[in-house]
Amino acid sequence: MYRKVDPTPSPPSSFDLPFEGQLSEDNRWVIMAKLIPWSEFEAEYAQNFTVSTGAPAKSFRVHLTLANTSN
């Protein structure tokens, strides 16, 4: 099952980091995340699921993160 998620990612300033740090807008990962067309990937990813059966799917960004950390 697929449920539409909020396409607006959290701004870097909203992340809590240890020692009261904050992500910089100049951080290479923050810059890269802004360049990726997340909504296009999310739309294509959503086509793989039904809207009425099965457990709810994770969002594309979460799935991508989990797929890259499981190795």
Task: Write out key terms for the chains shown.
38% helix, elongated, mainly alpha, 71 residues
What does this structure look like?
By secondary structure, the chain is mainly alpha-helical. The chain has three helices and no strands. It is 38% helix and 0% strand. It has one domain.
Short description:
The chain is mainly alpha-helical and 71 residues long. It is built from three helices and no strands.
Chain-wise SSE layout:
Layout: H1 28-35, H2 38-46, H3 60-69
Structural class: mainly alpha
* Portion in strands: under 5%
Number of strands: 0
Q: How many discrete domains? A: 1
